[in-house]
Amino acid sequence: MNAIEIHNLQCGYQEQAILQNVSLVLEERKILALLGPSGCGKTTLLKAISGLIPIDHGQIYLHGQQVQNGHRGLDPEERGVGFIFQDYALFPHMTVHDNLMFGLRPLRLKKQEAEERIASTLAIVGLSGMDKRYPHELSGGQQQRVAIARSLVCRPKLMLLDEPFSNIDSQLRIPLIREIRELLKSQHITAIFVTHNKEEAFSLADELAVFQQGNIVQQGEASAVYHQPANLYVAEFLGRGNLVPVTRQSDRSVLTPWGVIPVNQVPAHADLMMFIRPQWLEIVEGGDGRLIEQHFLGTHAHCRIHWQGMDWDAWHADSMPISTSAVSLRLRPHQPVIFRGKQG
Ligand SMILES: Nc1ncnc2c1ncn2[C@@H]1O[C@H](COP(=O)(O)OP(=O)(O)OP(=O)(O)O)[C@@H](O)[C@H]1O
């Protein structure tokens, strides 16, 4: 079953339209990252799903149940959604235990059941024994886990996380993200989270949805969106690449600096560009190209090369020997990405 189905969602603030016509489907237990420039409407979408803002148009279904139809929708507490904010929104004057108890209030559980749930939830997030501490007595990562526990304690099937790691030290961020991914998976929770950070998105998410001006332009498995971007905007949003003019030879082939290569589908357009990520190029010593500069980044060296009348970005496993001057580029096997040219 799908955890979320959104059809043609439109909403905004006062007279300003923010989400133009958003549709989205996410299967149960998947983790989706919403990516896009600041102000494009990512947080607004989370608020719309959880029922925190009015909707102008569209339908939202959660686990098969319609929770929103145009203006009419269920109250936030009736949707079974956990919302985790960027600043954790923990109550500073309450202990960890009391923060979780506050989260449980809408469920009106008996005291013993509530206490059991709090204890088991703190164990799940690795904070057993910290229940009497106040938020200021915890690290950023621990506070974030309390925020997650406060949401988990209500046993949501869906969690929405708004930039959940932006206040976490960069060294702790990736281990914490892995931990949270395992937690969401082990508890069978579907999640949507907003991030500005592509590394975070790739580490936590199964799928990415890329926003452009109030719309989702592409949604799919993270590696598919990265390797087969729908347009130049998505391609460049997810990382660097070389844009190379190519010529259409047939419906299924283009002429490139490496000769004619097969392509799944060539757009019927005269002005075509091939998008090539730096790691899809192999730097070969010798030839009529020139190594202009390089930066060793630990995992690889980022090289700038002048070849065939243009400058290219290419990666090499290590720094090129300082004596290297003459180079050329080979295309590594990959599924080519062809776009209409910028004029097109
Ligand atoms: N309560 C509000 N009242 C009026 N306008 C708002 C309100 N909240 C957000 N906006 C506007 O709506 C637009 C989308 O905001 P939103 O917070 O959804 O963007 P975002 O993609 O999450 O941005 P960021 O990545 O910077 O968090 C922005 O132009 C913002 O200024």
From TrEMBL:
One GO CC annotation: membrane
Family annotation (Pfam families): ABC_tran
Biological process annotations from GO: quaternary ammonium group transport
Iron keyword on record: yes
GO molecular function, one term: ABC-type ferric iron transporter activity
Classification via InterPro entries: AAA+_ATPase, ABC_SmlMolc_Importer, ABC_transporter-like_ATP-bd, ABC_transporter-like_CS, ABC_transpr_FbpC, P-loop_NTPase
Alphabetic keyword roster: ATP-binding, Cell membrane, Ion transport, Iron, Iron transport, Membrane, Nucleotide-binding, Transport
Domain ABC transporter per the UniProt entry, residue ranges: 4-238
PANTHER family: SPERMIDINE/PUTRESCINE IMPORT ATP-BINDING PROTEIN POTA (PTHR42781), SPERMIDINE_PUTRESCINE IMPORT ATP-BINDING PROTEIN POTA (PTHR42781:SF4)
Protein name: Iron(III) transport system ATP-binding protein
